[in-house]
User: Which sequence fits this backbone?
C-alpha cells in the first residue's frame, strides 16, 4: 500500500492519477477512430474498462483461494478479460494485433 499525503494526489494528472491516465488513453483512441462508432463517451468507455479489470482483480483478492471454484491462473484470466474488453469496444481489434496475443500459455 502506498501512503500518499493529500497534497501528493493530483486528480486529473495522468502521471499521478490512474483513472486520468486511462481517460487520456481512451480519448486518444476516440480521436484516432479506434472505438466502435456508437462509443463516444470517454467516461463510459473508461469506466467500463476499469470495472472489468477491477472486477477480475477483486475476485482474485477476495476469492482466489476458494476451493469451490476451479480457478484458472490469474494471468490467463487477466489476459482473457482484457481481450474480451478490447474486442467489445474497438472497431477493428484484429488490425491492432491485440486480440488473442496476450492470452499466452494458460
Assistant:
Amino acid at each position: 500500500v502506498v501512503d500518499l499525503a493529500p497534497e501528493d494526489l493530483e486528480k486529473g494528472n495522468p502521471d499521478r492519477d490512474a483513472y486520468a491516465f486511462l481517460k487520456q488513453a481512451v480519448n486518444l483512441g476516440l480521436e484516432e477512430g479506434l472505438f466502435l462508432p456508437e462509443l463516444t463517451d470517454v467516461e463510459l468507455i473508461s469506466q467500463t474498462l476499469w470495472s472489468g479489470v477491477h472486477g477480475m482483480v477483486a475476485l482474485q483478492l477476495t476469492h482466489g483461494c476458494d476451493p469451490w471454484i476451479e480457478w484458472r491462473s490469474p494471468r490467463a484470466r487477466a489476459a482473457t478479460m482484457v481481450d474480451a474488453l478490447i474486442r467489445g469496444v474497438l472497431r477493428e481489434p484484429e488490425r491492432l494485433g491485440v486480440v488473442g496475443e496476450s492470452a499466452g500459455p494458460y
